[in-house]
# Entry
Amino acid sequence: MKKRIGIFGSTGSVGRQALEVIKEQDDYFEVEVLTAYRNATLLIRQALEFKPNVVVIADDNLYKQVFKALDPYDIKVYSGDKALSQVMEMETIDLVLMAIVGFSALVPTLAAIRNKKQVALANKECLVVAGELIRQQTLENRVQIIPVDSEHNAVFQCLMGEGNNPVEKIVLTASGGPFKGFDRKKLEKVTPREALKHPVWNMGQKVTIDSATLMNKGLEAIEAHWLFDVSSLELQILIHPESIIHSLVYFADGSVKAQMSRPDMKIPIQFALSYPGRLTSRIKRLDLNQQGILHFEAPDVENFRNLALAFEALEKGGNLSCILNAANEIAVQGFLRERIGFLQIPELIERCMQSVGFINEPSLEDYIETDKFTRIKANEFINNS
Ligand code: NDP
# Structure
């Protein structure tokens, strides 16, 4: 029987690549649910091609357009944020691919876990914001999260078959983004256009800017903490511009395992969909002979302060990562709209971390309140800058 997949955020970069994987592997997978926020045109096109049982358009205003287009094809159409969580109750979903960007993925991800769905998690922000809650719910509901993000997917693969063998440290690799080696003087002048040109990966706007500021690696460190139960001291970030080694695990006996491939998100996406098996794919193979030398260096935390801020949030815990994440989402929007400069991104995040109230053991409601309040504060800082 084919695995029935719900793709949440199917119109985004990860969602579109997941559909390419499913198209290639249509003997193994079928699409049960597709969702988008506002890109109704692409959602309709995807639905007509993949014939899911259900589609959800998160923006209520677009319901009529999507309904009208899909009504003749026996595809159910729902709209609104709540529908994203309600459809998790469908018994016909075997695996949820969570590829919605940002905080909005948190409530539907928790609904997927509550409904005991296997979750392939691409979204970073919900583990960053509420990692403790997600870990607790996955344990309670005996749900396994398979990370899609290439670094965590690499660590997950390195840990397969290791049982309780002691891990010494986890090394997350980073390409370094388009501004690797830039000093403050150069960073002051960089534009959103330049920041959106990632040297290796082709991704959505938010994650591309996060890569340029190194916040992406900071968010990934927090994610790794929750996924693999490692402390900040057991986590290291290593700049590796070729992005061939996706991450490494150091074991207590001195052995180091690394997972390698050409930088192509379809590899971790397919692995997460087919886990625990592996499927043959047509993806271009890594040729180390042709690749030549691989480079490694320490990250520059003086000029790329986001990384240090993320480690601070990880160490202090509570709702601080939630504040960091919300402030970062607003700062990235502000930078993309040219309201603030590149170097103001960490400044704004730090101001929010200092001024929004700290809660040591937050509940889901506390996270939602913290997220809302931080966004208001961050917007105030932008308006007054
Ligand atoms: P995109 O911006 O390309 O796509 C985001 C998706 O989420 C779209 O389908 C979008 O719909 C939907 N969406 C946006 N806002 C909302 C909302 N408020 N409610 C419901 N749906 C919403 O993002 P990416 O695909 O790049 O990234 C998705 C997640 O995966 C992020 O958390 C990112 O950090 C992570 N990730 C991405 C990687 C990549 O290679 N792109 C790699 C590793 C992790 P619409 O199109 O209609 O706006």
